[in-house]
Amino acid sequence: MKPAQEQLEHITQSVDISLPEGALLALLEEDRPLRVKLGVDPTAPDVTLGWAVVFDLLRRFQEMGHTAVLIVGDFTAQVGDPSEKSETRKRLSAAEVRTYAEHLLPVIKTQLLPERLEVRYNSEWLGAMNMHDVLELTSEFTVARIMDRDDFNKRWVAHEPISMIEFMYPLLQGMDSVATRADIEIGGTDQLWNLLVGRDLQERRGQPGQAVTTVPLLVGTDGVKKMSQSLGNYISVRDEPEDMFGKVMSIPDDVMPDWYRLAAMATRAEVEALEQGLADGSIHPGEAKRELGRRVVTIHHDTQAAERAEVAFDRLFRSHEVPDDVPVHTIAAEGEVSLPAVLADAELVASRSDGRRMITQGAVKIAGERIDSEFVEVSLIAGSVIQVGKRRFVRIELA
Q1: Phi-psi region for residue 19, left (φ > 0), alpha (ψ -120 to 50) or beta?
Q2: Which domain holds residue 271?
Q3: Contact, 47 vs 236, CB < 8 A?
Q4: Does 153 lie in the same domain as 43?
Q5: 234 located within any domain
Q6: Which of 215, 233, 253 marks a domain boundary?
Q7: In the structure, what pLDDT confidence band is assigned to residue 157 with cuts at 50, 70 and 90?
Q8: Bridge partner residues of 236 (DSSP)
Q9: Is the domain of 46 the same as that of 170?
Q10: Three-state DSSP string of the chain
Q11: How high is the pLDDT of residue 27?
């Protein structure tokens, strides 16, 4: 294996916190394959660039010869992680979790190396626990210790409800570390408290306590809140290159350094040079964002796709041209038709009500002309391109 210090520099490119201090380097100096655990609850249908940050960290451990222990939280997902939540989280059914897991796992595997990868489902050990096991587990932590968590404490002070099952989540996550004998556990900064619980439980059961390592949370495309599928401010690793590039170009300028570091995996030196250039004006924000878009698309597709995506972006936003590959939607109608219905059927909007909202906002164009009416003549749209927003197009043909 490579020298410990060299491994540490490669692995910690995006790391924010590593505890206990010096523990990660000490483990690397043992010169053996380490078991590096990452737990993922399948509670959403897609893998975002925010998730990709922690998958990149896990892959870096693999590249240094260590074993990635990927925990699919099919049991804990039904409990719901209360981290940074201001209210009790909606619980998912086993069927919902299973469906999400089936969709997510193949995508997650594309982010990791196939070798040195161990995939485990935590229902294997958590589902086998009986009431005696649960009571034994709860006896190891006091309410005072649980209330040390900042989000729990804030909700308590605000007299907001906290369910008993939420208290259980960190303990269940900690049992994953015990069951897999993890040397290291990684996660986002919002998981730090939970990760330390896992270390505590391991030590209480006679195991060496894991080192914990976290990465910052990637801010979403709105530039305000963390990237989240529920908030809609995310980019999927499965987005088409053109969509991915266009969404990157929409982020606020002030979050670019973080995006370079976390989403584009730039080195610390590159990020520092970017920050200096933006501050003194030697780097134009627009060009920096283009480079960011190219890097992100290249990581999740390839260089050629990034080049095509940038050309498509310029055609659409600089030349205001209609893309070459506009999909075709066929309708069979005469006279007037409901435009919201056409938009929904063509999957340009989520629903007819969403279509009405887009028309009201002036976001719908037919043949380049803004439309403000819900009902239009078929002759107006036949053979024409309908545009919704900046990047959604469809060409209408009559059956």
Answers
A1: beta
A2: 241-317
A3: yes
A4: yes
A5: no
A6: 215
A7: confident
A8: 48
A9: yes
A10: CCCHHHHHHHHHHHCCEEECCCHHHHHHCCCCCCEEEEEECCCCCCCEHHHHHHHHHHHHHHHCCCEEEEEECCCHHHCCCCCCCCCCCCCCCHHHHHHHHHHHHHHHHHCCCCCCEEEEECHHHHCCCCHHHHHHHHCCCCHHHHCCCHHHHHHHHCCCCCCHHHHHHHHHHHHHHHHHCCCEEEEEHHHHHHHHHHHHHHHHCCCCCCEEEEECCCECCCCCCECCCCCCCCCECCCCHHHHHHHHCCCCHHHHHHHHHHCCCCCHHHHHHHHHHHHHCCCCHHHHHHHHHHHHHHHHCCHHHHHHHHHHHHHHHCCCCCCCCCCEEEECCCCEEEHHHHHHHCCCCCCHHHHHHHHHCCCEEECCEECCCCEEEHHHHCCCEEEECCCEEEEEEEC
A11: 97
pLDDT, tens digit, for every residue of 124-149? 999 999 999 999 999 888 877 778 77
Q: What is the Cα–Cα distance from 61 to 118, expressed in whole angstroms?
A: 13
Cα separations in angstroms, 196 against 22, 147, 244: 15, 14, 35
The reply to whether 42 falls in a domain is yes
Sequence-distant (≥ 6) Cβ neighbours of residue 268 within 8 angstroms = 13, 261
The amino acid present at 110, given as its one-letter code, is T
Looking at the fold, whether 163 and 290 belong to one and the same domain comes out as no
Q: Which CATH number does the domain housing residue 311 bear?
A: 1.10.240.10
Written as six digits, the tokens of 78 are 């039904």
Domain harbouring 389, CATH code: 3.10.290.10
Q: Are residues 37 and 167 in the same domain?
A: yes
Residues 386 and 296 placed together within one structural domain of the fold: no
Prediction pTM value: 0.77
Residues 87 and 110 in one domain: yes
How many other CB atoms sit within 10 Å of the CB of residue 201?
23
100/188 same-domain check: yes
| Residue with tokens 């002036």, as numbered in its chain | 362
Is position 34 within any domain? yes
